[in-house]
Amino acid sequence: MSAVTLLARLDGVRRLPPRRGFASSHVARCPAHDDRRPSLGVDETPDGRVLLICRSAGCSAHEIVAAAGLELHDLYPPRPVTYADTKRGPRYTPRSEVPTAEAALKSLEAAARHAAVLALVFGDAVPPGLRLLLVDLSASASAALRAAEIVESP
């Protein structure tokens, strides 16, 4: 909705020079109370939002739009949300970025080889906790590879 839709439902509308940062500014009689002189400020932002302020009775935006036969969401333009509008981007991993089973298997094979090489090269120089971690990593990767082979076999 634009300010024009709201202004068409108000009485005593008068256009003003736009205030700084606004696309248009108007005053009108507030529909939420018995207003004899225009006291309702109606400003529209460049992106289409409509801002209201009642300068005589202090009516809320909800009271004003209800008296005009509208709802609060009518003060904002419909706008599709795109991921380009958000700073974080998509909240899901696009299918194109999900690793394939082949890529996962290659990673596991590489991890198993590296763990085995490290365990062999450093032998007793590797602290016992790290040695256990390397052996576990190698065993886990090998088990995952065997499981993948079973699943892939017909």
Protein described:
The protein has 154 residues and is of the alpha+beta class. The chain folds into two domains: 76 residues, no CATH class; 57 residues. Helices cover 38% and strands 14% of the residues. The chain contains four helices and four strands; from the N terminus they run αββββααα. It has a four-stranded antiparallel sheet with strand order 1-2-3-4, with no helix packed on it. A hairpin with a 5-residue loop joins β3 and β4. α3 packs antiparallel against α4. The longest helix has 25 residues. It is rod-shaped and about 90 Å long. The two termini are 60 Å apart. The mean pLDDT is 76.
Report the biggest beta sheet as strand number plus sense, adding barrel if it closes.
4 strands, antiparallel
Distance between the termini: 60 Å
What do the pLDDT scores average to?
A: 76
Count of DSSP H/I helices? 4
Q: What's the helix-strand series? A: HEEEEHHH
Main structural class:
alpha+beta
Question: Helix amount, in percent?
Answer: 25-40%
The low-pLDDT segments are none
The backbone outline, from C-alpha atoms, is rod-shaped
The number of strands is 4
The count of domains is 2
Strand percentage:
5-15%
From the alpha-carbon coordinates, what is the Rg to the nearest angstrom? 33 Å
| Order of strands, widest sheet | 1-2-3-4
Brief characterization of the structure:
This protein has about 150 residues and is α+β, with helices and mostly antiparallel strands. It has helices spanning about 5, 60-65, 100-120, 130-150, and strands at about 10-15, 25-30, 40-45, 50-55.
